[in-house]
Amino acid sequence: MSKRKKPIKKTIARRIGEWAVLSRRLTAGERIGNRMGYMGSAFIMMSPYLLPYDNIGAYTYLCGAVLSLPQVWLAKQWNLVVINLNLLVGYGLYIFG
After folding, report:
1. N-term to C-term CA, the chain
2. Is 24 exposed, middle or buried, given 0-12, 13-18 or 19+ CB atoms closer than 10 A?
3. CB-based burial of residue 67 (10 Å sphere; 0-12 exposed, 13-18 middle, 19+ buried)?
4. At 85, phi and psi to the nearest 5?
5. What is the pLDDT of residue 9?
6. Residue 65 contacts by C-beta under 8 Å, 6 or more apart in sequence?
7. Low-confidence residues of the chain, pLDDT below 70?
8. pLDDT value at position 38?
9. Burial class (CB in 10 A: 0-12, 13-18, 19+), 69
10. How far apart are CA 25 and CA 14, in angstroms?
11. What are φ and ψ of residue 7, in 5° steps?
12. Residue 2 pLDDT
């Protein structure tokens, strides 16, 4: 006894919505970039709390910026690319300068 599904009404709004939305799968680079971005964001979020402890926070800021850079580059979010490069330069000078 299988239940029959109701057919979906193809209204004009639904057809426009289906036409406007592009269904696609993420490439392998995008999937890796997303995972690295999440890990980099976690490093950046915990870094302010680690700064007082022998400057470990500065190193985690650098790791977070490097890990989150591919995700924002692939998404073409150029303002976040500039922020990550600013993090790299600023904390790089703080540690090595």
Report:
1. 75
2. exposed
3. buried
4. -65, -35
5. 78
6. 40, 44, 84, 85, 87, 88, 91
7. 1-2
8. 95
9. buried
10. 22
11. -70, 140
12. 65
- In the block, residue with structure tokens 């922020």: 83
Residue 83 burial class via C-beta count within 10 angstroms: exposed 0-12, middle 13-18, buried 19 and up: middle
Q: Which of 43, 47, 33 is nearest to 81 (CA)?
A: 33
Burial class (CB in 10 A: 0-12, 13-18, 19+), 37: buried
Distance CA 7, CA 69 (A): 45
Predicted confidence at residue 14, as pLDDT, reads 82
13 exposure class (CB count in 10 Å sphere: 0-12, 13-18, 19+): exposed
